[in-house]
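Protocol step 4 of 5: obtain the predicted structure for the target chain.
Materials: sequence only (see below). No template structures provided, no constraints applied. The aim of this step is simply to have a reference model before the mutagenesis design in step 5. Sequence pasted as it appears in the construct record:
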Amino acid sequence: MRLTFLGSVAAIAALVAACASEAPRPSLSTVSASAEALAACRSSANALCTRTSACSPAFTRFFFGTEPDCEAQVADRCLSRYEGPGAAAVPATCADDTSQIACGLLTDVVAAIPDPSIHLLSFCPVTPGTFALGAKCLRDGDCASGWCQSACGTCGELGKEGKICGPNSGPCERSLRCLQGGCRKPLANGESCLHDQCGDGFCDFSAGSEPERGVCRPYAGRGEACTSVACDTGKGLVCNANGVCEDIVLASVGAACVPLTIEPGKPICDATGWCSPSGVCQALGRLGDPCDAKSGCMFGLLCRGGACRRGGSVTASCE
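Step 4 output (structure tokens):
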């Protein structure tokens, strides 16, 4: 993923005049998501996490620890979409669509950092809300487009093919993914590629029939040579000293680990723990667990109000 300010007195004066003549906007405040929203989010989370674990048990364990932890975090993150005043009371579930998601996209390690629940949920479209483009919004679910540009921002348009995308530019339309900083259609292995936009592999430019074009091909799998093709990190594979892909070693809380390394044969803690200087996995807080300044929370969670809670904005109202 790849991540001017010009002003003039006339522009500022015009803006001030426009604001002075504009009717006051009502304040926006969060609302409790409906029971139907909770049910839909739990259904979506179950389907997304089940599909992810089927694609790569190692990905689930590295980022969430367990499948129930994955479901809890994704459902909680999903629910935040529908806490705004313009959100649908009965949002749709994406449970029927997850089986079609390419494993390579779903288990993209780079895209999953720093919040894996946001990454998984990006495959589940937001049910449209009632606010039009440009309207002030609090949550994504407020907007008919499904994207509130920030908490207390405005409803924005989803990116069309070729548009710049990313954390500062917004998401893409449903049929597209944000690949290499642009909204693109994921390609199948064997298709010709111009960018690294392959859904289940990488763009191999050495195999292309034309200059600056490549062919999508899969990463090296377990037991395969990794001297010229990288191992599939989404499946938890690393290249060993013999040039062969092998599984990373994931350790549970209380087990031995090697700090600050991801190397073949050296255990690292899964998402439920962190490796202490003494080389033992220490527990991290799960969603809802108590926490303080001395304890940490799992990926995508922050210690707020004495408990591990979802990361991101906690804005509850806008003027």
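Step 4 remarks: The longest strand covers residues 214-217. The helical segments are 9-21, 35-55, 57-63, 67-80, 103-106, 109-112, 116-121.
Proceed to step 5.
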